[in-house]
Specification:
The structure is a homodimer of 499-residue chains. Chain A is built from 16 helices and 17 strands. Chain A is an alpha/beta fold. The two termini of chain A are 43 Å apart. Chains A and B meet through helix 4, strand 1, strand 2, helix 8 and helix 16 of A and helix 4, strand 1, strand 2, helix 8 and helix 16 of B.
Amino acid sequence: MTKATNVATRRDGDSGSDDPVTTPGGEADAIVQAAARAAAPWAALNRTGRTQVLRTIADHLDSAADELVAIGARETHLGEARLRGELRRTTFQLRLFAELVTDGSYLDVRIDHADPDWPMGAPRPDLRRLMLPLGPVLVFAASNFPFAFSVAGGDTASALAAGCPVVVKVHPGHPELSAATAERVKAALVAAGSPEGVFDIITGLDAGVAALRAPEIKAASFTGSIAGGRALFDIASQRPEPIPFYGELGSVNPVFVTRAAATNRAEEIVAGFIASFTLGAGQFCTKPGVLLVPRDSDLVERLTQATYPAPAPLLNPRIQSGYTETLRQLTSHPSVSYAGNADPFADPPGPTVLTVRAADLVEQQDDLFRECFGPTVLVASYDSEDELLTVAEMIDGQLTATIVGEEGDRVLAPLMQALALKAGRLLWNAWPTGVSVTYAQHHGGPYPATTSPTITSVGTAAIARFLRPVAYQNFPQWLLPAALRDDTTLPRLVDGRRL
Amino acid sequence: MTKATNVATRRDGDSGSDDPVTTPGGEADAIVQAAARAAAPWAALNRTGRTQVLRTIADHLDSAADELVAIGARETHLGEARLRGELRRTTFQLRLFAELVTDGSYLDVRIDHADPDWPMGAPRPDLRRLMLPLGPVLVFAASNFPFAFSVAGGDTASALAAGCPVVVKVHPGHPELSAATAERVKAALVAAGSPEGVFDIITGLDAGVAALRAPEIKAASFTGSIAGGRALFDIASQRPEPIPFYGELGSVNPVFVTRAAATNRAEEIVAGFIASFTLGAGQFCTKPGVLLVPRDSDLVERLTQATYPAPAPLLNPRIQSGYTETLRQLTSHPSVSYAGNADPFADPPGPTVLTVRAADLVEQQDDLFRECFGPTVLVASYDSEDELLTVAEMIDGQLTATIVGEEGDRVLAPLMQALALKAGRLLWNAWPTGVSVTYAQHHGGPYPATTSPTITSVGTAAIARFLRPVAYQNFPQWLLPAALRDDTTLPRLVDGRRL
């Protein structure tokens, strides 16, 4: 099942990038050291205090919305409406983590009272466990969500909520916005009376790699390309003290359309697919990149004749050149056809639909089943619904997999079973873009969707990435952390029972 | 804080071992393939069925206790009473995981109903999340717990409970016991009607490494030495598809005795310390290896004059030679003194107490603050309680750290804060050996205690190592997994509220 890793040029990530400005080594080191000094006071701050800090950051960003959105629009080519919505999502996310800190269930408090008759064969001591912050976290920001996966995005919000100081290696695609966002976050931290060093930014790949190697950094997160993410994962894993590296890398997000759905809802499917894959000019990690459709349906014809959004400039020249390169490889492949009229290589690029036989996709998956970061998709025609299962069984890990089907489709049960092994999120008659920030969200998946199949980078469960359990044995009440005392009101497991 | 890794010869682990018998490559591959084929049916088995299987395994092992204990006693030099107790712990553990599977909270069910007014700025879709098994798990068995951390030990129990097939690379220290235990487990699986391939064993380092590289293996666990564990961690991390590697490696388990405690409770401290460090002839991962005591106390003198258990043979010749080597390095160190009369290098070895100044321990931590797997400890004398903090701040990650103190000791608060950063379990006026299997237990810690600071290898939370979340978006009730339907009775989080 494992095959040669596709080195997709999905986002410009950080591999080999020459940032125009870089934080000098000494200064970057001072920032990491300051984060290390802030770890104890930030971890020790009570939950009310930390909640207030997160809300203050959200407030400061909201009140700077006009300025920040204007800078973002200039630097990223993303429209004002999109950026305003993304900033709203970002401050909502900070407030949702504040709510989570208030609730306290993320501490996973467990209390086992001493039990002389514990059936293990030896008396059970008094044991109490809670989650503590891991320590300073290094966040590698992404290009394609200049707010939500950047300086004050989900990684920063969840790490701060966990009680970890954060050093963000900013993305070179939006340097001014990164600096302006960081200014607002720092002002909020000062206003809320936070310890110095809890948050700062560094610039440049060299500074990022040096920070990743710094013994003071205890975890790192990343959103970007497979090549860049894997390189950083390897550095994190090969340190004298390896640290958790939470990389969200590449995903094709295949969509499996059954014959019945194609017959009954062709118009709706075409409209939904086009809206999803052209959103943000196709620069979403959850863009549906491969659509599997029955050959005897009219879906390909409908897609050929459909009306598409106007061409839109990509985030930056590196994304554009990476996109063009992948597109060139796909269009020059003998099994792939292009049926449109417009020049797919135009800059800005228009939405492009390539076609292929599903059998060819299976046979040449390394070349064809790959992420193309931008507004191009591959539509694969199958003769038999069995081919849907073949594709589901052959693919690598994905962030999402979507089934567009109808009640009664015989392929549903085996297809769901196969896809649950491969994807972090399954969708039914819906589209994968627009990742909601919620309690039940999971934005992750087996490699190479992420470097760690057990974690999510979106939703409240993302906080678990930055926590570690510590057990306290035989401590008297007066010496225990407050969360572990008998009078705690936190959600907890007491002698195996949920309270 | 990070320093050169101590390559302690703690247990014989698996690095460089030449197992007398080894599973041939073809056969080992067939076992891995069978585990892969078993993954889907084992994962699909309902919770009642899996509970029955775990209980049946426990019953079969219990009913074979006489035979298994006799083989174990012959192969490991561990006494019958100890082995009988360990087997009881092992079958208790299987039944505790059965109870956990019945309870179902490990599935971490989360249900978010669709919400058109979700304050993120976009409607929230219906999202539901649960935990699914990771897939086939490779377990590297340990030598020092031939039942509890071996063929049917905690790793196997928690992986099977999670719904993962298990391949155990047996430890060469007890080959017959491993084979006999595996026979019983397999018989139980057949009796309970489990799918073929859910459990099997392989023998030999080569077979273990080949299995670790097999793409079908989705996670691995290990209990053993730092050197061996790190080598396997590196292999797991460098695979084309990296997999989680849960290694429990080395730990010194320092004990910090305050001046007041030394003054008030010298006799009790000496008795407790001796009992703890000589338990199992010092071959426990939680053996208290370093005891910090005030220089002006009589603890060293009492330890010198105390009565000790008789010399006991170590597990096997490799453990004995590793122990002798570490002991020779420690005793030849110019800062270390040995005050006893008996020959510390005798075989079998008697309990040995070495002494050092705490200041020397700090200055030469790489040489002196290291695990010595066997019945030797280092007692470090301090002049000022501040030295306790210095030691706590300098050390690497530990499984445990113990404070022996009195109410009113001024060092307690900073010492607890420092040690919570370094150890997975803190103890107060207790001893770290005898790890209880409970809901709140945490047997883990920062590197090199383990390769993953966020997980435990003992206690019910150990099941989380072998699970990954999957979210389902927009699915109708009839198509959802039963655990995620509106009528589920499992413990769950619904729209952010615990039910």
